[in-house]
Amino acid sequence: MPRTDVTTKIGVGGRIVIPADLRREIGADIGDEVILRLAGGEIHILTRSQAIQKAQALVRKSIPKGRSLVKELLRERRKEAERE
Q1: How far apart are CA 22 and CA 5, in angstroms?
Q2: Using CA atoms, how far apart are residues 71 and 6, in angstroms rounded to an integer?
Q3: What is the pLDDT of residue 74?
Q4: Disulfide: which of 46, 70, 75, 79 matches 50 by Cβ 3.0-4.6 Å?
Q5: Burial (CB count within 10 angstroms: exposed 0-12, middle 13-18, buried 19+), residue 20
Q6: What is the C-alpha separation between 74 and 80, in angstroms, rounded?
Q7: Please, which contacts does 16-21 make with residues 24 or more away whose CB atoms are closer than 8 Å?
Q8: pTM over 0.85
Q9: Does the domain spanning 12-83 belong to CATH 2.10.260.10?
Q10: Which residues 6+ apart lie within 8 Å of 47 measured at CB?
């Protein structure tokens, strides 16, 4: 089971080292971009894919079950192409 709490220090330039086992757990590697999100006075670190998954889940909540935005987009594009 991975560690959930790690103590680290803020270094020169505001740098923070994320231990390798935690990076592996979230699927992040050296050189990857991460997103820092301030929420309720806490800093959360997310990978790009985690942020996308959260955004997709948020959008999914507002779309009625069975509705396909992809199909709607394709339908609209076909109509636009027919008009041209």
Answers
A1: 10
A2: 45
A3: 95
A4: 46
A5: exposed
A6: 10
A7: 18/45
A8: no
A9: yes
A10: 26, 27, 28, 32, 34, 35
